[in-house]
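re the bet — no i am not wrong, look at it urself. input seq straight from the record:
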Amino acid sequence: MSRKQKLFQRFPIDGSLNIAGALVTTPYHIYDGSMLSLGGTVDGEVATRLLEAEHLSPVLDTNGRALAAIWICNFAEANLGAHHELQVSLFATQLKVQRLKADAFSYFRALTKVPDLMMVCHGLWNDTQRVVQYNSEHLRLNAKLTQSKMDFSGENWNFKFCDTFGNIIAEGSIPLLRHQLTKDTWQIAQRMGIRGTLNLLRTPFFEMPVVNTRQNSDTCNHVCVTYTACDKPLIRKTTDEDMIIIREPIYQNLDFRTAFVQQLKNIGFIFLRPTPLPIRSIAFDEVS
């Protein structure tokens, strides 16, 4: 049984709800597709301001920059139908943590060093109204409609997302990665440590809690646990050939800098239903 088959067997479709007069199933299932993750950092002060309303703190490195990611997704087969997605994510914590050593793979150090690491879905765009409403009404995410173009078929992964008025939100071109470089694998393992690396290798699905931004009169954030299954994820450090431009006004001052590129094909992905985010307030020793 493949990792994807195990994933959907463990978290099957088990409910339905009415979205815009149509019955849709839950939880959110992606049966096949590709995901391009640009991991990196943004201005720490800007990230702090963006997360202030969420009562969360960004995960900072020793340069004072905040860990972040941009996700470009082509979901070819899903329970909500095929769709595209653009997401701007900020990694956050409720805890008082020391800064992580700054380097290209700081994010992988955070996976093992920050005990309550969560990914705040701060900006989200989808290209079908049904998915936008599902994400907004059911998953409590601040989703917006986009007009998108995506081509993952050639030597580069090319993408362009515009708002409904035709204004560019983000666009870019990322060279295709064909095989995993041993030196990058070794550096990631060094950041995660022996135990963290072994745990990651043993786990059939990658788990990440995704937190929403508060809307209207919300008194707390909500969190959805996500699971991703991919047999051959490819990860590399960024190069001068990687190009992404973010023109969404709210993110103009983020100063996003790509540190690594992660390429996922033939994925299985599940986004579970939201629950209130538990409140934690604990300090722990400095991470390195």
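see?? Residues 3-276 form a domain with the Acetoacetate decarboxylase-like fold (CATH 2.40.400.10). told u. also Helices lie at 3-10, 44-52, 106-113, 129-138, 182-202. so pay up
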